[in-house]
Design a protein that fits this description.
The chain has 2 helices and 16 strands. It is mainly beta and 282 residues long. It folds into 2 domains: 118 residues, no CATH class; 159 residues, Jelly Rolls (Sandwich). Strands 9, 10, 11, 12, 13, 14, 15 and 16 form an 8-stranded antiparallel sheet that branches. Strand 5 and strand 6 form a beta hairpin.
């Protein structure tokens, strides 16, 4: 059994106190339980700099998490025992997410150990709506060598958040990975463990004619191999199969831009389909 702990901390790392009306519940917002932990809060307001901390008493655990009503339940992997999710209400952060995220006074947070079926199923292993700009303990994680103006609406993590709105650009729901016209732009998805992949799906931001697009792109795998793909100008997702590879990360780069008037190609979503590898059997 795995013990899971959920804690709400303030900017100084102290446990926040709620206003629970049920006397059976400790007003300190910290709970530990076997396999699954929940925090249910009423009359509680998050503050700038608050943190949600998820801990397990074992390393290498897969969790199904939901830290806010506006975040889809996500399969994440904790290589260590702790993951921190940072809350910010700064303008540069909130424009890339729904206006109601972490606002209001009623909140529900959950984290549970994933089932074997959830861990082993064939899925998009890049998907993580809970990913943030900085790595704070949970995979998959997206990062890049450029993000336009350090603006949250163009962060790398937007490309794996599961939001496919691509007929405009800028604030939610049109956040994307923007490359600031940098010729050597590259985005990397770290899985944090060994995975077996055989399919990639690209969804361009398609605010044409404001946007451009890429005609050829290359994937660089952590095993040293590469795959290149000829891609099209389309608002639809483009899928490509490749030979099975067991890797820990993939980089998306060598991006050849179309010869058109727009200098703004951008990526709305990238998917990597496959399965988790059981290291004990590899």
């Amino acid at each position: 059994m795995v013990n899971v702990t959920l804690t709400v901390l303030d900017k100084d790392g102290k446990i926040r106190v709620g206003e629970q009306t049920d006397e059976r519940i400790d007003k300190k917002l910290c709970v530990t339980s076997e396999e699954v932990a929940h925090l249910s809060m009423r009359n509680f307001t998050y503050h700038e700099g608050d943190q949600l901390r998820i801990q397990t008493d074992k390393a290498g655990v897969y969790l199904m998490v939901k830290l806010d009503e506006t975040l889809d339940t996500s399969l994440i992997y904790l290589p260590e025992n702790e993951w921190t999710y940072e809350l910010s209400f700064a303008k540069n952060r909130i424009e890339a997410r729904p206006e109601s995220r972490f606002l209001g006074t009623s909140h529900y947070v959950s984290a549970r150990v994933a089932t074997e079926e959830e861990v082993n199923m064939y899925r998009n292993l890049a998907l993580n709506p809970h990913d943030q700009k900085d790595f704070l303990g949970a995979y998959p994680h997206a990062h890049a060598n450029v993000e336009t103006r350090n603006d949250a609406t163009f962060f790398a993590c937007n490309a794996i958040d599961g939001v496919y709105a691509n007929h405009s650009h800028g604030p939610y729901p049109f956040q994307s990975w923007g490359i600031n016209q940098q010729a050597d732009a590259e985005l990397t998805i770290d899985f944090g463990r060994l995975v077996s992949l055989n399919k990639v799906v690209f969804t361009w931001r398609a605010d044409f004619p404001h946007d451009s697009y890429w005609t050829n792109v290359t994937l660089k795998f952590s095993d040293g191999s590469e795959e290149s793909f000829e891609t099209q100008k389309t608002e639809k997702s483009q899928s490509f199969l490749f030979a099975d590879r067991k890797v820990t990360s993939v980089s998306f780069g060598k991006l050849i831009q179309a010869n058109d008037p727009s200098p703004f190609p951008a990526l709305t979503q990238i998917e990597f389909w496959g399965t988790n590898v059981d290291i004990s059997e590899d």
